[in-house]
């Protein structure tokens, strides 16, 4: 049974942040199932987990744990400062838009960017504008005052040169005015389908670049499975040919039966027996061909399962659901102008690079 996207029975896991929530839900479901005295429905469990996660996120508990061990929780890409510098050298204006508070942004960005590129010793040096506590996706949807700040949430004063470009909250129109660009002249990087990519493209008309960390593994698996995928396509083509053969035989059966029934008065007994013999022969061919089709389907299924498990033993590729695109795959295709596994991949291209869309062929246009 295919799922209904509007059903309340499902909760979508759109980002990496959802994975710990899903893991905790799975563990607690097992606990409740093995302890009948716990009177909790699965829906109650999901709601309690969501409330708990929101609480530790809002009260700073989660951030406190992360900032105590940045090496463990945050992957530092040594190329990140250089690719930002690459953009700047290409006369691009960079802005940072985050839902996090300034104090936390400062800790993380210092860890990622400081002291790498000469002339850009501080992470703030890379950005023309820094917007914290942005309330995305509300930042793209509802007008709000953009507030300049002179101190962080802990009451610590900001350097005046830094404070001149740091804002809290606001609305995308104010950001566009400040940086002097709008619409398709803005390329916005984000990793959240709804909070970053969907609304920034729909409401602002910005170009969007979606960061999908899983893409690196997806490409690695794709490359390793090339031979098996070619074999799978061959099997599918052979299956189609077998189905066509059966359809042709069924058509012959229909023709002979209709001929016998419609014209029996003109046929001798020998003629009718001859038609029956032909029908029996065709039925035998159909039966033999159906056995062949069953064998082909078995081969295809085994190969499809093996290929899917190369990505994940349970779910397969994040971009596919069997032969169809997954909901996530549809979202990426519909809302991301480009997508990549990490920002630093753009170091491989000149800043003047124009990424052109692949031809979107209809079925009758494909060879």
Describe, in plain words, how this protein is organized in 3D.
There is one protein chain. This protein is of the alpha/beta class. The chain folds into 3 domains: 18-59, no CATH class; 71-218, HAD superfamily/HAD-like (Rossmann fold); 226-309. The chain is 53% helix and 8% strand. It is built from 14 helices and 9 strands. The protein has helices at residues 18-34, 42-58, 61-68, 70-73, 80-89, 102-113, 138-141, 160-163, 172-179, 193-204, 215-224, 226-262, 269-309, 327-335, and strands spanning 95-97, 129-132, 147-148, 166-168, 187-190, 207-211, 320-321, 324-325, 338-340. It has a 4-stranded mixed sheet, with helices on one face. Strands 5-6-9 form a 3-stranded parallel sheet, with helices on one face. A hairpin with a 2-residue loop joins strand 7 and strand 8 (324-325). Helix 12 (226-262) runs antiparallel to helix 13 (269-309). The protein is elongated, with a radius of gyration of 30 Å. The model has no long low-confidence stretch (mean pLDDT 92).
């Amino acid at each position: 049974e295919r799922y209904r996207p509007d059903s309340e029975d499902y909760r979508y896991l759109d980002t990496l942040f959802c994975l710990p929530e899903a893991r905790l839900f799975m563990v607690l479901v097992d606990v409740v199932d093995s302890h009948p005295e716990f009177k909790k429905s699965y829906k109650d469990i999901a709601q309690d987990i969501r409330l708990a996660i929101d609480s530790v996120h809002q009260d700073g508990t989660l951030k406190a744990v992360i900032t105590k061990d940045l090496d463990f929780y945050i992957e530092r890409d040594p190329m990140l400062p250089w690719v930002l510098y690459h953009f700047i050298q290409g006369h691009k204006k960079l802005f940072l838009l985050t839902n996090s508070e300034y104090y936390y942004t400062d800790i993380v960005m210092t860890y990622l960017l400081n002291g790498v590129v000469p002339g850009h010793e501080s992470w703030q040096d890379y950005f023309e504008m820094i917007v914290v506590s942005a309330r995305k996706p509300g930042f793209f949807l509802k007008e709000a005052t953009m507030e300049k700040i002179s101190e962080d949430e802990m009451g610590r004063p900001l350097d005046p040169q830094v404070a001149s470009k740091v804002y809290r909250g606001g609305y995308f129109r104010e950001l566009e005015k400040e940086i002097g660009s709008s619409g398709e002249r803005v390329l916005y990087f984000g990793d959240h389908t709804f909070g970053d990519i969907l609304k920034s493209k729909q409401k602002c008309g910005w170009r969007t670049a979606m960061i999908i960390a899983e893409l690196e593994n997806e490409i690695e698996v794709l490359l390793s499975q090339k031979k098996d995928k070619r074999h799978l396509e061959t099997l599918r083509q052979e299956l189609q040919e077998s189905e066509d053969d059966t359809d042709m035989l069924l058509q012959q059966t229909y023709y002979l039966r209709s001929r016998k029934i419609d014209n029996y008065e003109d046929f001798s007994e020998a003629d009718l027996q001859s038609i029956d013999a032909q029908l029996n022969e065709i039925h035998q061919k159909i039966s033999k061909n159906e056995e062949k089709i069953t064998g082909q389907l078995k081969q295809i299924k085994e190969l499809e399962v093996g290929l899917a498990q190369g990505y994940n033993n349970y779910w397969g590729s994040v971009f596919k659901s069997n032969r169809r695109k997954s909901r996530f795959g549809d979202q990426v295709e519909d809302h991301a102008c480009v997508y990549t596994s990490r920002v630093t991949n753009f170091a491989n291209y000149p800043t003047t690079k124009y990424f052109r869309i692949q031809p979107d062929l209809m079925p009758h246009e494909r060879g």
